[in-house]
Amino acid sequence: MKTLTKGEKFFLAGQWVERDRLIDVRDPKDDSLITTVPAASIEDTLFAIEEAKKGAKIAAEIPTHERIAILNRAADWILDNKEEYATMIAREGSKTIREARKEVTRCIETLRVSAEEARRIQGETIPFDQMQGSENRVGYYYRFPIGIIAAITPFNDPLNLVAHKVGPAIAAGNAIIVKPATVTPLSALMLAKAFEKAGLPAKVLSVITGYASEIGDTLVTHPDIRMVSFTGGLSAGKEILKKAGLKKISMELGSNSPVIVLNDAELEEAVESTVSGAFWAAGQNCLGVQRIYIEDQVFEEFQGKFVNQTLQYRVGDKLSEFTDMGPMINEKEAIRVENWVNEAVAKGAKLLCGGKREGAFYMPTVLTDVPENCTLASEEVFGPVVTLYRVPDLNTAICESNRNEYGLQAGIFTKDIEKAFHAIRRMEVGGIMINDSSDYRIDAMPFGGVKGSGLGREGIKFALQEMTEPKVVCFKLKK
Fold first, then answer.
1. Is 252 a residue of the active site?
2. Domains located in the chain, CATH noted
3. Catalytic: 474?
4. Which is the catalytic residue, given 8, 109, 286, 466?
């Protein structure tokens, strides 16, 4: 894919527009320029909102069968151009081409599930006569679209996480304005192209590229925005909550995901699953395995196998079919991870492998004996770093897993169903994977966390509930 010297346009209420002020989009592999995108202004954002007000009325009137058709046609377009989408994901972000292809496949699935769920936005009859004096009343409730949704998306899944907001919004009959991550806007623009090709009416969708510091507050605070759907960091999420005002909020704010490995676990399976879960997309994954608690009896064996498999990870060119892991999103982030690891080692942690950086590349890193008073122990590393902990029993592992501000997903490896259910009941997370790592998700399941990991749930059916409101209808009949 050649660099586009003229730069890209952004998608403003159905029109592709240019601006004089530009943002460079660079390949994190070597910081080379891929292309540029316009830097949208506050005026652009306000225009997008005004047009979305019209778009919301248009979207609400689109028949369900046509919403289904539009979503399926968008999915078909992406399927027909799958390699182009995958290459863009790999070039502008951190994923290898094999990881990027999987994201494109998931995006197609997300849109298809959105189409299916569009036909299932249903209400219920209400037995009003359950209350004395209401014997002559009958009625029901149905769900209606909320209006305009603002979606703010991260860099690590630049296509599918956008689809997780756009798909349900369109299925529900809303208008949506997307502000993609500044460093990875191209995949989101390609998604807009798919919807344009699919015949989505103008004004229903905007994808505006720009700096969050300049246009974010306008999207978050504007009274005509009825919902903010945000995926990103905890600190940014807290700021949005302070500013948003009276509107719906959906947030997925990351994690510091734990996995428990008990004495009876299938170790080969546990190692393979957790290594992949730790280093997928260079560890820049909200579900990524960051902490592994291993029972005493199998700790040494697990540690040896885990380190050995980590050392076999092939780091390099993202577009190579043989590469397992690419760079982090930029050198600044790689330096941050390097500093966190160095801090842990300085405070007594033992470095088992990795710990080296070359530009934006940070080698897959495994540590043990990480003390509680360092950043790695409590914060989301969002990089290719995993820590191993020896524990005497399941209860200790659960207590240590819960000793954290986050609670997105967790994993446990055991053959004992009683122990599995004990962990299910006591672990403070939004999802727990049995005999799998924390890094497992299908796009149809409810997805979200507790504590500092967010508010509400994504996953198409569940996002649709957030993006609609129930309206009660009651008929008073003559006696």
1. yes
2. 10-254+454-472 (3.40.605.10), 257-443 (3.40.309.10)
3. no
4. 286
